[in-house]
Amino acid sequence: MRLDVLLVGLETDHGVAQRLRDEGHAVTVAGQEDPISVGTTVLDFSGLSEAGRDLWLHELSASDVRRARTLVLANGNSASAGVNTLLATGAVAHVASHTRSERVLRTLEIMNGAELSLATYLPAGRASSFGVTSSNDVRGLRDELHKTIGERLPARAREGLLATAEELVTNALYNAPVDASGLRRFAHWSRRREVTLTPPERIDVELRIGVDEIGLSVRDPFGSLEPYRVLQSLARTARLNPSQVEKKPGGAGLGIYFAMANVGHLVFQLRTGVSTEVIALMPITTNYREFAGSPKSFDVFDRRSPHGR
Amino acid sequence: MGGDCKIEIHASEREVRVTISGAISEDFDPSAIPADAGSPERKLTVNLAGVTRLNSSGVREWLRFVRGLTPGCFTLEACAVPFVQQLSMVFNMAPRSAVVSIYLPFFCDACRLENYVLVRSDEARRTSAENVACRKCGADTVFDDVPEVYFDWLGRDDA
Known about the structure:
- The structure holds 2 protein chains of 2 kinds.
- Chain A is an alpha/beta fold.
- Chain A contains 11 helices and 11 strands.
- The two termini of chain B are about 30 Å apart.
């Protein structure tokens, strides 16, 4: 696949630009490009003036197409102002680190229609699959995942991935199921109340263990999560204020935020009316501080129509 | 679904001491704690050393519990690492001034053991920059988190 990519705010010799050229893609570098053309764009806010950032944020907020086709580069981990500020805007669907050219390239390919699954990120990884049909299965799933991951991750990082699995599966069980008219069946239920799906409904969970990363996929067969809901949720929770936690009946609304904080890379693949898949990738590190200091990234792919949106 | 949470209560006329251990989840139920605990009439001390994890529903239950307490009339002591992480991530998880002591995580590169050290909150940053001897092999350990994240809550004013 040959990509045609506009780089905005990046130096010509930036690692991402170099990598794209090395792979044979067409690269155009622009300093303060106005968001006029709707192509695949890699945007570095740190290379833009304040007015340029405002212009782009406005455009990303206003245009679903622009948002789906723009990857924003950020510095550092979740602690850095960069990532949290971007999440808080609710306007950015793709964030990657300056230092992860490989991930940038992968994201651009998926934006342009390449297949996406857990195997996309961990093709040689050893896979284990699990099925969940009831909230009573969650504790057993957690135990199985714990056993499978073993000592490959530091204890706190492993706990972060297990917590992510629990949050994503809980969302899939309580928030995702809809009835024939599209109304949510269990979203308003207390999380203390048991949910059992109606056969053949099932949440599919996959764990893949690679050399450098461990990946988790949680897929529901409902496809009721809309892209704007993901971005709204992250925007609400990334801002530390009284609206961070939902007060309405049902869940606390913190699940995606917690997942984002607990893993290195979080990917949403949204096929409206068909399925919702969330993929979480965790770098394998010796200790927790290496993970906590590693770059964070996330993607929301709206797969309703070709070319990643 | 979330896991077991144990709440032990020791109540006297003027004070209530509570020890919470296990997972703080949707099943977290503090209703057995005397209703006047955490008020000017009856101080409350909550020990959180045994908290193993918190999920999103548990955080909401915790926030409901804390909102029912009178600021200045309760303290949180020996906050376990999973709880400290939430202090930075969640708005008003607890008033900063109520958190009197926390655990710090240290990692030993020599024997790969995770060590946990209990410190007063006002000494936490300083201690995190020091070398702490591994309790197993005695080698120097290193603070096992990103200080700007782990101590973010210390820089906030009580709401």
